[in-house]
Amino acid sequence: MRAHPQETIGKARQAHAESLESYLARVTGLEGEPLRQEVERVMGIVEGIPQLMERVNEVAMRRGVGLLVQPLLEHAADYFRDPADHAPEVAYGVTGLLDDAYLALSVVALVHDSFEQMVDVDVPGQVATLRRLLEPDLVERLDAEVGRAILKLARTVAGLRERSSLDVDFFLERR
Questions:
Q1: Which of 13, 41, 51, 87 could crosslink 96 through cysteines, CB 3.0-4.6 Å?
Q2: Residue 71: is it exposed, middle or buried by C-beta count within 10 angstroms (0-12/13-18/19+)?
Q3: pLDDT digit string (tens) for 7-62?
Q4: Cβ count near 85 (within 10 Å)
């Protein structure tokens, strides 16, 4: 799981697009040292996503909820890898990673809300940071993408439950 986001981050650094610093200056109005600090903070968030997802997955497995958490994390990893996501890295460079990071953090926030906090990271603060840097319509599309991941998981769980109850009925009938 970790390799996909890290690979995408590496490729985004090579894209010839507006720099993250230029983008942040434009959307925040910051300049000088405050701008450099914001760039470092945002890059720290983005570059921390692969490790965060891996740690959440490990904790979820240990706590016995890995089968529910893993598909959501895989959805986020797949989004990172998708060259045609809402803000492709090929076109936007490192700035194109902000949507990927927002989606991944939104999934982790969902996991924390649904089960309990898996890792000691200020996920809501990071989500808020990225939310204010993205266009509202993009945030809406990304939130819908998280909703699709939840729906896909719910369908999978419902299918497993249905198969499980059929198996129980089969064994009860044989008694």
A1: 87
A2: middle
A3: 777 666 655 557 889 999 999 999 999 999 999 999 999 999 999 999 999 999 99
A4: 20
Tokens of 165: 């109850």
* DSSP assigned state of 83: T
Token reading at 123? 């996920």
CB atoms within 10 A of CB 57: 21
SS3 122: coil
What pTM value is reported for the model? 0.83
- Rounded to whole angstroms, how far apart are CA atoms 163 and 136? 41
> What does the alpha-carbon distance between residue 62 and residue 140 come to, in Å, rounded to a whole number?
33
Going by C-alpha positions, the residue among 63, 60, 81, 82 that lies closest to residue 71 is: 60
Structure tokens at 1: 């799981």
102 in Cβ contact with 126 (< 8 Å)? no
Q: Compute how many other C-beta atoms are within 10 angstroms of the C-beta atom of residue 49.
A: 26
110/107 Cα distance (integer angstroms) = 5
